[in-house]
Design goal:
The structure holds two protein chains of two kinds. Chain A is of the alpha+beta class. Chain A has twelve helices and 22 strands. Chain A folds into two domains: about 325 residues, 3-Layer(aba) Sandwich (Peroxisomal Thiolase, Chain A, domain 1), CATH 3.40.47; about 120 residues, no CATH class. Chain A starts with a strand and ends in a 6-residue tail after the last strand. Classes of the chains: A alpha+beta, B alpha/beta.
Chain lengths: ~475, ~400
């Protein structure tokens, strides 16, 4: 039985109320008031599609042995590199084995569901197992554009397997249309779209039904058999029409989270699927349609295993952790949409030494530490000579991944001198659980969240962006964790 | 059994520029300025210098690499110039090199130089550079010196359960005292007394360090000519001799940065180097025997923690001594009589020699009454380079018999 064994989700913490955007830019496009309801999820200044996909993937593998990961697929239309496989960054951050399939899926927005299909096919063919598929997008609309209001940032991830599946894959139907409703040229930063009425009527109005009909016919199932119906479409009129056409009961149609997150592009259907799985019951039939440059329609049936899945943060847990971003210009600055001065210190060169990055990629991407076989001291970064002054054993180390261990704040500061797009720069010394100490940047927090002894978890983030060479470099930061109220 | 350096070397002459934002001065100008004073004070000619050591830290925006800068700037007659770099201990390292050169018998007279031209960066604070190597770019925090030292304060407060308000008060007193002293010193960078309230209320640089908890970043140079007591006796038969009693260096082992036993509330290197220095100098009770100090107050919290690391204040009691005025100019052990890094300024590699210059001048009674330390016996200087969890500490102890 092939299907989804696990799922994970990620919504960045910052939420920008759309009325703030409209308040700033509505003068240029007053009709945008129609699109200004709710809020959009906004990646932090140190987040992008790669880091969000990683966060969702980490959530997805909660409770599973990462050594078993048999492939990592990354889907996005906003990857930080055109040449450099971002799936390897996600796989590296998961500390997955390197003898696995890795691939990026891009282009149309259906890349997310296509990646999921590719994993299902690979597992079905017996060529891979426990393949992690993570889709994420962080698309930009120009200031005052419709897209700026409609798009949001987020990610979802799934582990595709032939055992212990929580949702069995029953079949799929796909179409490919060179229907250019949205596009970005090779050099473009911002999304462009054609007339919305056309997108609504032909794009969603025709292609989504076409895919649903194709799937139902192929799999011998009726549209009304589905307990969870997932398709992306933020045009209310079109949704109503599709629901009516297929006689979908409204409570079975999954919320598209347009007012809470926004359209997350290639991750949209998959985030809705992850949300649906949080609530799904054994026996539920699920319909998932991915849209963009054609459609993928997928049919899953939920199994008993879903009741045994280790609890995870999921979309809802991630959505609940929120901070208002009350400043539109901060959003523009973080997305490098406006030129902002971080001072001459901020202009100092940061060289990425690729030889160094490769030699140390397990330590950098996978947060691999070393543990002394003589005295048991865990140390990060890995050492050849044990740092325990009472030990000092030479070359007696074994690797140990610490990215999922978390730690405790030993000392901290918030620094107004350091150049940052989100000052003050907060960082401090963290005692890693089970041993080892290192100075990490803190993120997704304010100074009030920092205290000696407070627990942190580690999050894979953008370490810096080198504008001169267009290099986004990644490393781990520490995020203070609110102590659970008992 | 190693004998150490005690009483083998004396200071024949010293020079020190005015520290500050020397917009009009190239490094050569600073070097010549300090050297002229030093040579006149030593009462020798340039040709009598047989070897020299040159300390500078941030070479990229400064004097470049190697020893050539000094040879060219001073037109030294083809003698050895060895450039040493060891963070903020670079000046003391050059002094140590010259002293060891003389003590070994390899040279009769040697020159120690420290120079730093920092104010060509275009921005405040120290230049942003991967001082701990390229790996720092990949995995180091987006940190600055104040932020790394600020963590001493948060760890100190937690370690000794001293409320942050009390730590802030003690830090403010540290800076207040240095401003009081620096105001009297014509060569200091910052020469304005600052009221405690202004220090306490200053804008935050890196929590909990405010503006006045941070030292000045300055241009400057300082140098010393050293020789043996016997040779000095011939050159300056009637002068008091300022002798080198101890020179110690300690470098972090990784125990602080990577292991979890360090308390974070002080520097292991300073604790070690000072113990070794007291032994070398024959000092049994530093609190009773040290007469004056110039310590590395790059930040007020550094000075506060250093008072304990030097085994002068009891662990956790530094704030009490500081607030009692123990380290004020009229206290039991005046600390930073020249204004310290805080006010005299901090051209990194010049600072160690500037501190020695202050001790030397105090021993010789060269300062006016208002900033003179009475009858000093032992003077201690201390540098701390790097950051609290990864650093180099240098200690020099000087004395007048």
């Amino acid at each position: 039985m092939v299907g989804i064994r696990s799922y994970g989700g990620y919504v960045p913490r910052f939420r920008l109320n759309k009325m703030i955007i409209f308040g700033a830019m509505g003068w240029l496009n007053p009709a945008n008031i129609m699109n200004a309801q709710g809020e959009k999820a906004v990646a932090n200044f140190d987040e992008d599609s790669v880091t969000m996909a990683t966060a969702a993937a980490i959530d997805c593998v909660t409770g599973f042995d990462r050594a078993d990961i048999g492939g990592v697929y990354f889907a996005s239309t906003t990857a930080s590199y055109r040449e450099r496989l971002c799936a390897n960054l996600v796989a590296g951050a998961l500390a997955a084995d390197e003898g696995i399939r890795t691939a990026d899926f891009a282009g149309g927005l259906k890349a997310g569901t296509t990646a999921l299909l590719a994993a299902l096919d690979a597992v079905g063919a017996g060529n891979a197992n426990d393949v992690v598929v993570s889709a994420s997008d962080c698309r930009l609309g120009k200031m005052a554009s419709v897209q700026e209001l409609m798009f949001g940032d987020g990610a979802a991830a799934f582990m595709v397997s032939d055992k212990d599946v929580i949702a069995e894959f029953k079949g799929s139907y796909s179409t490919g249309h060179d229907f250019v409703d949205h596009f970005r040229g090779a050099e473009a930063k911002y999304d462009r779209q054609w007339e919305e009425r056309w997108i609504r009527d032909v794009g969603f109005g025709q292609f989504v039904p076409e895919a649903i009909n194709g799937l139902c016919e192929k799999c011998g199932v009726a549209p009304t058999d589905f307990a969870k119906i997932i398709y992306p479409c933020y045009y209310g009129g079109a949704r109503k029409k599709i629901n009516k056409t297929f006689a979908f009961e409204p409570e079975k149609v999954q919320d598209n989270m347009q007012a809470a997150i926004g359209d997350t592009g290639s991750a949209q259907s998959l985030m809705m699927l992850a949300s649906a799985l949080e609530e799904a019951k054994p026996g539920d039939k699920m319909l998932v349609v991915g849209y963009g440059s054609g459609c993928d329609a997928l049919f899953f049936e939920v199994t008993d295993n879903i009741t045994r899945l280790t609890p995870r943060r999921g979309i809802s847990g991630s959505l609940a952790k929120r901070t208002d971003l009350d400043n539109y210009l901060k959003y523009l600055t973080w997305r490098r949409m406006v030129p902002a001065d971080t001072g001459l210190r901020g202009e100092e060169q940061k060289w990425t030494r690729w030889t160094l990055q490769w030699r140390n990629h397990k330590m950098i991407l996978g947060m691999e530490a070393s543990k002394c076989k003589k005295c048991g001291t865990q140390q990060y970064p890995p050492q050849r000579i044990c740092v325990n002054p009472e030990c000092g054993a030479i070359d007696e180390m074994e690797p140990v991944v610490v990215s999922d261990k978390g730690g405790k704040i030993f000392s901290f500061t918030s620094d107004m001198l350091a150049a940052s797009l989100n000052p003050p720069a907060m960082y401090g010394t963290v005692d890693i659980n089970d041993g080892g100490r290192y100075v990490f940047d803190f993120t997704d927090c304010s100074i009030d969240d920092l205290a000696v002894g407070k627990p942190v978890e580690f999050s894979f983030r953008i370490k810096y962006y080198d504008a001169m060479r267009d290099i986004t470099n990644y490393f781990w930061k520490a995020v203070p964790v609110a102590e659970e109220a008992e | 059994m190693a004998e150490g350096i005690r009483d083998k070397v004396v200071i024949l002459g010293m020079g020190c520029t005015r520290f500050g934002e020397r917009w009009d001065s190239n490094p050569d100008d600073l070097a010549v300025e300090a050297f002229i004073e030093c040579l006149e004070d030593a009462q020798i000619e340039k040709k009598d210098i047989q070897a020299s050591w040159l300390g500078s830290h941030i070479d990229e925006i400064n004097i470049g690499k190697g020893g050539n800068f000094l040879g060219l700037a001073l037109k030294l007659p083809l003698i050895p110039v060895t450039r040493v770099e060891n963070f903020c201990a670079s000046g003391t390292e050059s002094f140590r090199g010259a002293c060891y050169g003389v003590a070994s018998g390899a040279y009769d007279i040697a020159l120690a130089f420290g120079i730093e031209k920092l104010k060509d960066t275009g921005y405040g604070g120290l230049p942003d550079s991967p001082a701990f190597g390229q790996m720092q770019v990949a995995i180091g925090p987006n940190a600055t010196a104040p932020g790394m030292f600020a963590q001493l304060a948060t760890a100190y407060s937690a370690r000794y359960d001293v409320p942050m308000e009390r730590v802030k008060e003690a830090m403010a007193h540290v800076s207040w005292k240095s401003h009081q002293n620096g105001a009297k010193n014509p060569r200091a960078h910052l020469r304005k007394p600052i009221p405690i309230e202004q220090i306490m209320g200053a804008p935050m640089i890196a929590y909990p360090l405010g503006l006045f908890d941070c030292c000045g970043v300055s241009d400057g140079a300082a140098c010393a000519i050293v020789t043996t007591p016997e040779i000095m006796k011939k050159i300056k038969p009637n002068d008091d001799q300022v002798k080198v009693k101890a020179l110690q260096i300690s470098v972090s082992s990784g125990e602080e940065a990577l292991y979890t036993d360090w308390d974070g509330a002080g520097m292991l290197t300073t604790r070690k180097a000072s113990s070794m220095a007291y032994e070398e100098a024959g000092i049994k009770n530093p609190r009773g025997e040290i007469s004056m100090m110039e310590v590395h107050d790059c930040f007020s919290i550094t000075e506060l923690a250093t008072m304990e690391d030097l085994h002068i204040s009891e662990p956790g009691k530094g704030p009490d001594d500081v607030l009692d005025g123990f380290y004020d100019l009229d206290g039991q052990i005046p600390c930073q009589p020249d204004g310290g890094l805080k006010c005299f300024g901090h051209p990194i590699a010049a600072s160690g020699l500037r501190m020695i210059y202050e001790m030397y001048s105090q021993f010789l009674g060269r300062w006016p009454e208002e900033r003179a330390v009475k009858d000093p016996k032992f003077g201690l200087t201390h540098n701390l380079g790097g950051v609290p969890n990864q650093n180099v500490c240098s200690i020099a102890i000087l004395g007048r018999d």
